[in-house]
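Worked Example 4.2. Read the sequence first, then its structure tokens.
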Amino acid sequence: VWVDENRDGIQDSSEPAVSGMKVYLLDASNTVIDSTFTDANGLYKFDSLLAGDYKVQFEQIPGASFTDANQGTDDSLDSDANASGLTGTITLLPGENKVHVNAGVIIENQQLVDVELTKTTNAQCQVNVNDLITFTVKVFRKDNSNELVTLSVRDSLTSNMTYVSHSVTEGSFNALTGIWSGISIAKGDTATMIVNAKIMTSMGGLACNTAWVQTQDKADVDSQAGNQLNTEDDIAKACVSLPIMLCSAKGEKVELMAPTGYLTYVWKRNGVVIQGETSNIYLATQNGSYTVEIPSLNTCSVAGCCPIIITDFCDCKNEICIPFIIKKTK
């Protein structure tokens, strides 16, 4: 999926991709059987399909329309979607791949905007119960459009944190719904929100605070508001790490789990590779700082890449001496 800037129905090398667009797969009876989103390069995929007849439906973007279909002679560069974003019937033979089911999008008045969101924390990775953590959320413009962009942001604390206070440079924040609304930014401007939260549990592991652009009144060049895709630049996460207690003397283990779906994983303890551990699950039996790397990803999956911290601690009850008398009788 791409932005057809010159509206000729053909994708030029300079025309940008559309990420975050929802794409539906339909069967011969026009029933939706699967859905996905375009990635940062505007690409999407439906795989492991049976032979048969299908259609693809591209979701409409606010303030945009679909370009004319089947222009030119190169099927790899033209658009296959009609004015409603629906393709014609696509017949898939056994073992066949269809790699040129495309859609061109026209942004009305060509005013593409680019809003980015970042989230940071003032804390070091390791925190403890009752620590006060300050999160800073910023939304800012990276484009040169002269139009104002009105948007709202959703901020989500995890269950092991409780809200304490906040401040915003513009708009208002509802602590009950987590919605920061009334944001209107011009090119080059930044809006900032600070949220203070307290750690409320001793349950160890990562505690993360995620924020994303919930609504936006202008089409964005590389993201779509509200879809919460981690590959886009309108969502960000900041994490801290609560130590996990483990008693190695009792043979206790802690199961560490990374997201599924990748070919291989590299687990490390205190920065040293754990040989032979290449699955998404690792059973830790020692204290230390554990991290996992996914070679197919270029960046950390969470902001800051805080490790899982395991502390060796055996909670043994104190001996209690209770006096008693033994009498021997015949």
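Now turn to a second chain, presented in exactly the same format:
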Amino acid sequence: MTCVVWLGPLDDARRLESVLAQLQISLASATDVETTLKLAVRRSAAAIIVAVDWGILAETVVQLTTANPEIQILVATRLGVPPQVSAAFDAGARDLLDIKECDPAQIGAAIDRALARHKQTRKERDLLIKLHTLNEDFLKAMVVLDKRNNELEQIVQGSSIDDRPIHVLVIDDEGTIASLIEYVLTNHGYKVTVALDGETGLKHFQKNQFPIVITDKNLPGIDGVAVMREIKRVHPETDVILITGYGSKESAIAALNIGATAYIEKPFNDIHDIRRKVDEVAAAQKMRNKKRDLLRTVKQRNRDFLKQYRDIRQELQSWLNSR
């Protein structure tokens, strides 16, 4: 059953209770604001009826609405209200002007209240428009994200690869092998820089962070594993291919576990195996970079959207706090 709470003289509550019972509405009575609010919560009341002569009426209404902004306040009076006035309020009128005395203070206060409500209503409307626009932007962002996901799927399935030449650093103390690798890779569109020892290779890397490095494991001075560790420390995204001696698979696998992307055994059965291995690494790297770029774009759009959301949310919170 619907319940309302009465705040006022109990004699009037008893008179009103019988009328409400005919309407299938129960009435809970209280004689102070605190009890009224507790009853409203306990009985899940949607409305509070306040006697017009109960305390300072305006202050009482402020107390009730501040404690429970959703509660509806009705004012009960024995003086009666002309039917046309009541109908006007039902139709949307918000205030009543007493022009019998034409008191400037009373009229001015009513006009001020109307202006404040008008300003608040416009603010509410503007805020709702912003929220609607934000929702539309969110839906558009989801469409764009879905399109980007489809593009990513095409990339994964082998769509076009960036044609810019990849710069490869080759480090091998055997000049003949280093030159042979340079020749094969250059003929297949790679840009190649050669170093004959680890120290020189690291110096080259400090000047130009190569996306792919091929290094012999057994180098004089700084060995290939140490070179790889330093390269990965400086630029973790660089792919390192380790050249190992035949039968050194265990050490090569250990190198994979500490950061190498791939390994190649020598002597080489086919020098083009090196090129094929570099092709595999380069293709995986380009795909990885495209995924990262796509993710960066999506993250930036998400950040932009979240900033819009937070700004509007802050404005909404300020508006709620001002009510």
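Notes for the reader: The two ends are 30 Å apart (CA to CA). The chain has a mean pLDDT of 82.
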